[in-house]
Design brief:
alpha+beta; single chain; seven-stranded antiparallel sheet
Length: about 160
């Protein structure tokens, strides 16, 4: 009986360690918080995953929030260890995740174990390492937004997602 109890305890510990994103990636941040950053209502919130991330080998879940003019993607990539997550969360990785021209990435402090904020002509992205997870919040748009001007508001979404992972 003690062997069964220890196995059940192990399974319960794994379930508690799994990020909330695995069951509901669209529940990591509030829809109203996303709408405030987008500057208009969220027309759709589309979950995806879990799936293997081809760039890192981690387990990826995400939610894409669409408005009339922009999209925000909130994702969590989970790894088997903190060392594997740290190997993935680099400046080069963050730079490679930006679309468009004029890309730049800077390391940021005060959030997660390591964080990067990047901008390009097509959007902006936070990449934040925390433990065995890499949390990303990205915005893409069709218009001429100021990506650096959204840094603080996107950071608020990152903080919310970190609370759920």
């Amino acid at each position: 009986m003690s062997r069964l109890t220890s196995r059940l305890g192990f399974v319960a510990a794994l379930a508690l360690a799994a990020p909330a994103a695995a069951s509901d990636p669209c529940g990591l941040v509030g829809r109203n918080d996303v709408a405030a950053v987008l500057g208009g209502p969220v027309l759709a919130a589309t979950p995806a995953g879990p799936m293997q991330d081809s760039a890192t080998g981690g387990r990826l879940t995400m939610c894409t929030y669409d408005s009339a003019a922009a999209s925000i993607v909130v994702s969590v990539t989970s790894f088997a260890s903190a060392a594997l997550a740290a190997k993935a969360a680099t400046r080069e990785y963050a730079l490679g995740r930006l679309e468009g021209s004029g890309s730049s990435v800077a390391e940021e402090g005060g959030i997660g174990d390591r964080a990067f904020f990047g901008t390009s002509s097509a959007g902006a992205r936070w990449v934040v390492l925390r433990g065995t997870n890499v949390v990303e919040v990205a915005i893409r748009w069709a218009g001429s937004e100021n990506p650096a001007g959204l840094k603080g508001r996107l950071r608020g979404l990152v903080a919310a997602a970190l609370g759920g992972s």
